[in-house]
Amino acid sequence: MPLSTRSYSARWAAVAAVTVLATAVAGCSSGKTGKGGTEAKGGTPSASASASAPSGSIPVGPGPQSAYTVQRQPAPGTCHFRYTADKQPLPDPTCTPGATNPKVTPQTLKTTICQSGYTKGIRPPVSITGREKTANAKSYGYTGSPHDAEYDHLISLQLGGDPNDPRNLWVEPPSPGHKPGAGPNNPKDGVENKLKAAICSGKADLGKAQQAIAHDWTTALSSLGLKE
Fold first, then answer.
1. pLDDT, tens digit, for every residue of 44-86?
2. Contact at 8 Å (CB) between 192 and 158?
3. Cα–Cα distance between 106 and 83 in angstroms, integer?
4. Beta-carbon count within 10 A of 133 CB
């Protein structure tokens, strides 16, 4: 074969090799990305996926009822107490996330929680809550004296909590320093009183106060910039 012919063939062989290599590299690159150019594995979630998961929302309960009925509680042993560093009890956020009373809004404060006697008129009777308390103690695996535990509204009635939604009630164990047999000692009550006063005086926002008490009653006041 003449020299010129051999040189021509060699050049085209080189071009073909480069083309094959470029195609292979492009194929590998496209295999690492999913549809739309995001990584198929290990990629950062899209903005729409992140936005679809709400954070910090509190369920809204059915509100006050003319006649209350015993509410079904979580299955026995499925709820677990949490404790702060100084051993104050907190509920299981899955079993007891809190629930609000739809009748209590920033527009109705004067005729609901800021009106004397409001909570007394919406509180469920002991004939209802007593049975719920027994079942909820089993939900949480509470084996202490029922007399020393309070069946407590996580978001209290005076803060616009739902009266009988099971998501807003839990068997609260006694706090540290409690004397057995003395009945419930609940420093949470004092926090609730201060929060209500702040809401009704315009020093605290209703929704933010409900969020704070549902998250951790021991830090609720400080998180809102209120005095302990």
1. 222 322 222 234 689 999 999 999 999 999 999 999 999 999 9
2. yes
3. 32
4. 20
